């Protein structure tokens, strides 16, 4: 799935891979082995599998990365997490901006929309999502956005409540929050696309600017851990005009 993006002779210092982390990590480990590097009992191969990647994890990772390798020609860091806290992303930026020779990062995330754009931009990005499912999700999200634009405010608020309803009651809280934020981000992106493609001509220029500026700000705040996806989308429901046919 991701092997075609990994070149043994021209290895990038940092890869960000979006998709199912169990499958991705398995492929990464096989690739690392193909480099002639032992993955077991090797202090130069560090694999962290976490629910939430926090500031302390980032600091420890920076410290490990700065240390000289012990046994291999390369140091490999494989980090898989459901969410990366804002402070942790900012902490890792310097390491990513100033690559350390023979040190390589493989970071997996279920959805890059939950990450800072500046953080994502420091990586060679690979999407390992299943094409069929992704396409279906996109089509469904765009359809929901179009319907949302025609709803009165009360219906919009009810729609948001249902959209962000917890899918699994027994999920850990941090996983649920990350999933909810990801779903909100996808819907917000689709809503903005629908506004651009189908209703721009029906909105005065000043209104266009105000609406899209608000969506931009909401998207930025949505990336911050602790923000309320429901409250943010409700603010969008109040700002976006009602486009009834």
Describe this entry's structure for a reader:
- The protein has a five-stranded parallel sheet, sandwiched between helices.
- With 245 residues, it is an alpha/beta fold.
- It has helices at 21-34, 55-66, 86-97, 117-120, 131-149, 153-163, 173-199, 205-222, 229-239; strands at residues 14-18, 45-53, 75-84, 103-109, 124-127.
- The longest helix has 27 residues, at 173-199.
- It has nine helices and five strands.
- Helix content is 52%, strand content 14%.
Brief account:
With 245 residues, this protein is of the alpha/beta class. Helices cover 52% and strands 14% of the residues. Helix 2 packs parallel to helix 3, helix 5 packs across helix 7 and helix 7 runs antiparallel to helix 8.
